[in-house]
Specification:
By secondary structure, this protein is an alpha+beta fold. The protein has 2 domains: 122 residues, Probable inorganic polyphosphate/atp-NAD kinase, domain 1 (Rossmann fold, 3-Layer(aba) Sandwich), CATH 3.40.50.10330; 162 residues, Tumour Suppressor Smad4, CATH 2.60.200. Helices cover 29% and strands 30% of the residues. Strands 5, 6, 7, 8, 9, 10, 11, 12, 13 and 14 form a 10-stranded antiparallel sheet that branches. It has a 4-stranded parallel sheet with strand order 2-1-3-4, sandwiched between helices. The N terminus and C terminus are likely disordered.
């Protein structure tokens, strides 16, 4: 029997879900020490946002935060770790997806080191993608984002990790190989800043006839699955740019990852897949979905790869594991399970 008389399932994934039936949020009315990790190169009207953040904290009776800027040499990992080690109980991340990913890496390092210092992460979106914020229904307004933290909304979410030969890449949104990484590579940073997520659509059209490739997928040590695909996407959450839900069952706190094997061919195949996604079909034509906690994807020839929208070195393998409940995130107090975002909410 589990806590409060709850029977814990024998299946480890189901057990994770059962154990997480407790309320997702807990009120924290006492003031907390905070820090803001900011990417000044990605934030418009930095002084205005700074004033909004300070005002929201003051309204809640919280002290002024420490301000730490990222650098080209350290995009936020070291700053996040140092802020927590210095006593911050909430770390606000003001920047785009790359800054958020770096902060998650810092939190992951602290958690795995087993130190006594832990903190919650609060995302204040300021980039062009902001995929985690879009998936979790987090507000764009900095003051509203601060109020999520001061009002006490919290949720333990999973962190995924791409394991390479020399290091690991923590992520909280998606990793991919093939078409999706080629699409990311096809959007220069100035174009992304100018046009936002529609730039990825234009890049995708240029890669519609990209050749498919053979993959072997092993999930949690089960027998291998062999397919010929255009792209492999491993998701902790399910929504793409523009709010399109690619992985309908993906949830950031269920202890498993969803694996989308995309197999459309040419404009006709992509058209059928896109139509299915826009109509909200759970698994549209041209796609297969698998689930597990340790995903090993191999292919004979190097393919482009991406993690949370940032390119990593091309490779022949995508080895990903999930770290259940590793990250404490500030979320709306009325957030539901799943991706926390109402289906009707605009991206």
């Amino acid at each position: 029997m589990g806590p409060r008389g709850v029977r814990v399932a024998r299946d480890p994934v189901l057990a994770v879900r059962v154990m997480r039936q407790e309320p997702a949020v807990a009120a924290r009315h006492s003031p907390c020490r905070t820090a803001v990790v900011v990417n000044p190169a990605r934030v418009d009207d930095l002084e205005g946002r700074r004033a909004s953040i300070r005002s929201a904290l003051a309204d809640a009776g919280w002290p002024d935060p420490a301000w730490v800027e990222t650098t080209p040499e350290d995009p936020g990992t070291g700053q996040t770790r140092a802020a927590v080690e210095a006593g911050a109980e909430v770390v606000f991340v003001l920047g785009g997806d790359g800054t958020v990913m770096a902060a998650v890496a810092g939190m992951t390092e602290l958690a795995e080191a087993g130190g006594s210092r832990r903190a919650a992460l609060a995302v204040l979106p300021a980039g062009t993608g902001n995929l985690l914020a879009r998936n979790l229904g987090l507000p764009d307004d900095a003051g509203a984002g601060v109020r999520l933290a001061t009002e006490g909304g919290r949720r333990q979410i999973d962190v995924a990790r791409l394991i390479d030969d020399t290091c690991g890449h923590p992520f909280v949104v998606m990793a991919g190989m093939g078409f999706d990484a080629a699409m990311v590579d096809g959007v220069p940073a100035p174009v992304k800043r100018a046009f936002g997520w529609p730039a990825y659509v234009l890049s995708g059209l240029r890669h519609v006839y990209r050749r498919r490739f053979d993959v072997t997928v092993v999930i949690d040590g089960r027998p291998p699955v062999r397919r010929r695909v255009t792209s492999v996407v491993i998701g902790n959450v399910g929504r793409l740019q523009g709010g399109v839900r690619l992985l309908a069952a993906a949830s950031p706190d269920d202890g498993v990852l969803d694996v989308g094997l995309l197999r459309p061919k040419g404009f006709t195949g992509w058209g059928a897949l896109a139509t299915g996604l826009l109509l909200g079909r759970r698994i549209p034509l041209g796609m297969e979905v698998l689930r597990g906690s340790r995903i090993d994807v191999r292919t004979p020839h190097e393919q482009p790869r991406q993690v949370d929208g940032d390119l990593v070195e091309p490779g022949t393998r995508l080895l990903v594991e999930v770290l259940p409940g590793l990250l404490e995130l500030c979320v709306p107090r009325d957030g539901e399970r799943g991706d926390l975002r109402p289906d009707g909410q605009a991206a």
